[in-house]
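Fold it.
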Amino acid sequence: MSDKKSKTRERIIQAAQAALIQHGPADPSVSQVMGAAGLTVGGFYAHFDSKDELMLEAFRQLLDERRALLAEVDPSLDGVGRRALVSAFYLSRKHRDAEVHACPLPNALGEMQRLPAAFREVLAEHIELMTAQMVDSPEEADAALADLALMIGGLALARALGTGELSDRILRAAKSAVI
C-alpha cells in the first residue's frame, strides 16, 4: 500500500473511531465517516469492502489503545491497586465527556447483538486481555471481571445522563464500589 493510500486509510479509521465513540458502530453512515475524514464517499471502497469492515477495524484499534493505556499503569502496583487507579480515570468526568480517545464500549454494547459475530469476538478477546492485565493471579479474574463490568456500566449510565449531578453521583458511586 502506498504511503498516501495508507495515510488516507488512517484518516478514515480515525473518523470512524470518533463516530464509534459518540454513536456506536451501527449508527454512522459511510458518508458521515467519509465527510468527517474530509473525503468523498466514492473513495471509500478503495480502502474497505464494507462499512462493517471499517467499523470493526476502528473498534479493534480503539480497544487495542485501551489495553495499551492499561499497560502503562505503574507495574509495581498489585492487581487491586491497578484496578483502583484505572477506575479513578475510567469513571472520571473527563473520560465521560471525552469525544476522542475514550472507551467505545458504553455506546457499542447495545448494538453487539445486531452486528456481525466478529464484533463479539473482538469484544470477548478484549475483555479476556483486559482482565489478565488487571490481575496478579487467576484467582482475581472474577473480581476483575466484576470491576470491569461495573466500570463500563457506570460510564454508560453516566454518559447516557450527560453532565449533571446524577451523572456525577453515578461516577462516584461506581468508583467507590470497584474492588
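The radius of gyration is 17 Å.
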